[in-house]
């Protein structure tokens, strides 16, 4: 049985970061909506209540019944979670001139407390709250404060409940990981044995039990997620796994041939399907980003279905879905940020069941699993690439000529990053063809050609990202090379937007 920590999400921008930090402590955790506590609780070792954009004093804020949790499981409230726990027991939450945002320092804390022992006096923490706890019930004991806030942290006497008004999960909280480790290890008594090796062992065992002698079909993309999913399945069911790699005409330069060659090294049973013209025809004249995504998704489904039907007795569809896909596709409010490129229409059409070996992992965890499986670094360290491929990096309508232009520019950029030792320092990079032409001069001639934007970001899981500060000399050289070598481009710009408020991809 895999022990775990449950994180109840009240809509905080930092909820995913809490999960990442707990997993960095070799402890499995899951994020669930604030009002969806599991019925099966035998493997739960502790619960964390996240922050929230709401105030507990708002009539429409999230106020779940915690009677089945509080006092029965070790509990840690963070920010809104801390305020809500106090509010539930009759404490007072108010603005009261104690609003804190950004860096501050905790002091006057109980050095012997299970949550805070070993923390340095004056340790920097990250605050992000407008309201604050102004009065607490009698059985609440303050264990830390800051210059502005008298109740920076507390515990409830007589039960295993702690709370902090700061964010230990954020990098700016200097001893945040130590605090979280105290909760996981000293309070929840977790064994902290969730490692790549243990994940592989348990997942392969589960896949063998789940799939038995059934045959499985998997659509490969060439990316790390589907590759690791394929190798895990191959360990479990071997020759009963059938992989299909579709060339939709929107891959990077030479990617179709290169990826197929790489998969031979892994011993996977893969069939490559060239289908570029089919996709170009379906996309002709279409400029709307979501419509393009749906056309590409449907095209993939149609090709995949045709090829899968040629196989006999297929019962399962495997997908490389990872945890952020699930989180970003559907928030606790039900708002979809963008549709994800998957083959969700196939199981119903073909009477297939779905298996997703990676659905509980973040991207960097997938890479660690891949490394433990012995997958070559060239595949493990590949940057993420969108499912619709260059279709969402060509703004506006898609034509074969635009694809050619973008493939050439993108190839120069990516190869340049590799040559200069910058590729592995960047989370994701690529070129975007803009629907804008501008005046230029080449030789003695006036040109009126396309603009390409270069995009490179730093991230750990894709949920947030900052633009990469690539050397000016490198950007200048790449710009010159693209303009000189790629016919149809006379201007190169660099995207310096972070996520949020922007997204990594432009569409």
Walkthrough of the structure:
By secondary structure, the protein is of the alpha/beta class. The protein has 14 helices and 20 strands. It has helices at residues 15-24, 80-88, 176-187, 196-211, 224-237, 255-265, 276-283, 289-308, 323-329, 346-350, 363-372, 377-380, 400-419, 472-485; strands at residues 4-9, 29-33, 44-49, 75-78, 92-94, 100-107, 124-129, 132-135, 140-146, 153-156, 161-164, 215-220, 241-247, 270-274, 314-318, 353-355, 428-442, 445-458, 466-467, 489-494. The protein has a nine-stranded mixed sheet, sandwiched between helices. The chain has a five-stranded parallel sheet with strand order 14-13-12-15-16, with helices on both faces. Strands 17, 18, 19 and 20 form a four-stranded mixed sheet that branches.
Task: Spell out the blueprint of helices and strands.
Blueprint: E1 4-9, H1 15-24, E2 29-33, E3 44-49, E4 75-78, H2 80-88, E5 92-94, E6 100-107, E7 124-129, E8 132-135, E9 140-146, E10 153-156, E11 161-164, H3 176-187, H4 196-211, E12 215-220, H5 224-237, E13 241-247, H6 255-265, E14 270-274, H7 276-283, H8 289-308, E15 314-318, H9 323-329, H10 346-350, E16 353-355, H11 363-372, H12 377-380, H13 400-419, E17 428-442, E18 445-458, E19 466-467, H14 472-485, E20 489-494
Helix pairs in contact: 4-5, 4-11, 5-11, 7-8, 13-14
């Amino acid at each position: 049985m895999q022990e775990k920590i449950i994180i109840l999400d009240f809509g905080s921008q930092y909820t995913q970061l809490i999960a990442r930090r707990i997993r960095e402590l070799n402890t499995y955790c899951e994020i669930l909506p604030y009002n969806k506590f599991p019925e099966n609780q035998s493997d739960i070792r502790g619960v964390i209540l996240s922050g929230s954009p709401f105030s507990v004093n708002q009539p429409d804020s999230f106020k779940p019944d915690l009677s089945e949790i509080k006092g029965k499981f070790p509990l840690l409230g963070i920010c809104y979670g801390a305020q809500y726990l106090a509010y539930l027991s009759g404490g007072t939450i108010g603005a009261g001139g104690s609003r804190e945002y950004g860096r501050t320092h905790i002091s006057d804390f109980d050095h012997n407390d299970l949550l805070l022992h070993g923390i340095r006096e004056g340790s920097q923490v990250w605050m992000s709250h407008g309201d604050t706890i102004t009065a607490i019930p009698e059985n609440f004991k303050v264990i830390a404060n800051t210059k502005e806030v008298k109740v920076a942290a507390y515990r409830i006497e007589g039960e295993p409940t702690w709370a902090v008004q700061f964010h230990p999960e954020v990098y700016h909280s200097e001893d945040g990981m130590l605090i979280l480790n105290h909760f996981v290890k000293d309070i929840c008594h977790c064994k902290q044995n969730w490692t790549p090796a243990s994940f592989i062992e348990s997942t392969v065992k589960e896949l063998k039990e789940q799939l038995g002698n059934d045959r499985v079909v998997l659509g490969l993309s060439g990316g790390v997620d589907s590759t690791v999913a394929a190798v895990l399945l191959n360990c479990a069911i071997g020759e009963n796994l059938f992989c299909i790699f579709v060339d939709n005409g929107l891959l990077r330069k030479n990617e179709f041939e290169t990826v197929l060659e790489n998969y031979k090294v892994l011993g996977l049973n893969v069939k490559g399907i060239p289908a570029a013209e089919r996709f170009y025809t379906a996309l002709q004249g279409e400029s709307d980003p979501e419509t393009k995504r749906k056309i590409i998704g449907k095209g993939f489904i149609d090709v995949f279905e045709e090829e899968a039907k040629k196989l006999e007795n297929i019962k399962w569809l495997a997908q490389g879905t990872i945890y952020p896909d699930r989180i970003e596709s559907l928030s606790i409010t039900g708002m979809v940020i963008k549709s994800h490129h998957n083959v969700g229409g196939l199981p119903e059409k073909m009477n297939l069941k779905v298996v997703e070996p990676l659905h509980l992992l973040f991207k960097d965890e997938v890479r660690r699993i891949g490394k433990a499986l012995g997958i070559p670094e060239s595949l493990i360290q590949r940057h993420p690439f969108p499912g619709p491929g260059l279709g969402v990096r060509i703004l506006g309508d898609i034509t074969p000529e635009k694809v050619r232009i973008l493939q050439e520019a993108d190839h120069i950029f990516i190869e340049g990053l590799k040559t200069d030792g910058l590729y592995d320092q960047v989370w994701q990079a690529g070129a975007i063809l803009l629907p804008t032409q501008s005046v230029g001069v080449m030789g003695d001639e006036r040109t009126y050609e396309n603009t390409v934007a270069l995009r490179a970001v730093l991230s750990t899981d894709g949920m947030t990202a900052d633009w990469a500060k690539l050397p000016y000399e490198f950007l200048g050289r790449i710009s010159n090379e693209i303009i000189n070598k790629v016919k149809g481009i006379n201007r190169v710009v660099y995207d310096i937007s972070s996520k949020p408020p922007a997204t990594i991809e432009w569409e």
